[in-house]
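pipeline/complex-builder :: batch 7 item 3
reading input block
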Amino acid sequence: MRHKRPAEGGFSEAMTALIETQGLTKHYPAGEGVVAALQDVSLSIAPGRFVAAMGPSGSGKSTFLNLIGCLDRPTRGSYRLMGEEVEALSHDRLADLRSRRLGFVFQSFNLLPRADALANVELPLIYRGMPRRQRRERAAAALAAVGLADRMHHRPTQLSGGQQQRVAIARAIVGSPDLILADEPTGALDTRTGLSIMALFQALNRSGVGILMVTHDADVARFAERVLRFRDGRLIADETQNAADAATALVALPEADAVA
Amino acid sequence: MNATLPPIASSPRRGIDVFEALRGALSALSANLLRSILTALGIFIGVAAVIATVAVGEGARRQVLAQIQSLGANLLIVWGGSATMGGVRLGAGGRSNLSWDDAAAIAREISEVQVAAGSIRQTFQVVAGNQNWSTTVLATEPDYFTAHEWIADGGRLFSPEEAAGGRKVVILGATVAEMLFAEDDPVGREIRIRQTPFEVIGVMARKGQNPMGQDQDDTVFVPYWTARRSVMGASRANARQVGVISVKVHEGENMAAAEEAIRTLMRQRHRVAANEPDSVSIRNLSDIQATRDASARTLSALLASVAAVSLLVGGIGVMNIMLVSVTERTREIGLRLAIGARRRDVLAQFLLEAVMLALLGGAAGVLAGMALSHILADVAGWPVLVRADAVLIAVGVSALTGLFFGFWPARRAAHLDPITALRHE
């Protein structure tokens, strides 16, 4: 699989691929036989790209995300994350890899309800054994980066859906990951809020973080610069596109859609 | 790569810090405060009951021990053998075949023996001024005080010379002194026993009840030969007779060996044929103590098993609630695993919660148990003693209960599949 991207100084092609898969396959046992959730996916993603994985439910896009996210191990095939072979690693090494290299954003935010925004964002750093003061400073910086500097001590229930997702994004970037994995990040949000989240993703991406976003919504996928289409467990298309600008789209949105 | 935040210096991964883990566990427990309290209640009640019952048991044991020790340490009591009168066996001490000379022989010939003192007792009405009181008159010699560890609280004890010379002196037990002289100092005053006047030379320090519940202080002590001549009216046949011989064995000597030596000596002196039973019976007060100790140990074992059952029930409660908690927080566990928690981090988190739950219940139980002990001591007047080791064991065992019963739920949490856990509704 080849991909093209407008060169930015022309150095990215020379770097190690962020993600490189060869014949990535995942089978799940189902009753008597097996379900091939993902079949023979080979691709490469350079660092710092914004990639969308699209397809209807059961197409294999979520399985792909789980494998890339080191939450699951492939039945067959190989996967390298920043040049590191992943498929044979132990549970602990996978956890370590998730903690250092990856950040997760979910459709339903998955914030701890009893903890305030700051404590939620701190969580990944606790598992990295970072001292408390350093942890707090970083978490505050991450919250500021997603525009929630004034909401640090709010609990999830005191925040809107969009704000909750921003806290989740702050939690994803607080450990300086190479890649954010987002599973239908706008699925639970209205159009305007969804657009603002896409604008945030694009801003983060411009500052260097890679993003792999799973969605079934073409309207959301247009903000990515590369779209992987899945169907029946197979990668059926891999297209580079000129990404739409979410900030512009947000401004263009009719005022009537605005929610108080 | 990410310009938003500075990169984190790559350092060897440390464990999550203890303070953070404790804070997390406390916050999880306080999130379901009522549920946590109800769960800890099982362990709380068990521990409180154990602390209180052990305190009461220990207090009673100490009291009995003190009573037994008040009789005298390393003490053997030699009783006259069961004499037979016209075919009727009179039982131990029925009619004494012991004499003053037997006591002297025991003291002289058996090396383990420190002192041996014969004594004889009889009840008389004693009179002082217009007061009178029926009490036990115990006729003996000064060695008796050594054997039974009697000491004078006021005045003095009589000397061997006074005893041998038949001087009419008397030492009052604390109860008798109180009954005859009330608040006054009896030393130097006169009392009469069977019309015979005696000079009070001392008052004994109070000993209290013996293990059989008798007031040991309701006694007066007079020299043996004085009593024989003036009070107890000796006939020629029993002029040197004593009721019992109190033998104090040297500290560290073998009591059983001394007992056997006395038995043999008495057989010789009483000319007992080889096929006849012993002429004396000997009681070892440490036997009584051993019996008491054994029953105290049985009681302790019983309490321990009650404690074990209550902790088992409490532990099952902890396990139950931890399983519920793991199920409720499946998504949280999935999230923690996704953002970099290792299995052992999740295991430690839930284990810590279970241990904290049990430990808080146990600690509160210790406090309640101690409070209950003090209430029992104040209100019911029971002697109680809360021992530090009982408290430590109770707290330690509660923590172990949490660890044991929390392990399976915690393991279950740690081995959840993050993908399934994240999708859990």
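note: Residues 285-328 of chain B form the longest helix (44 residues).
queue -> next item
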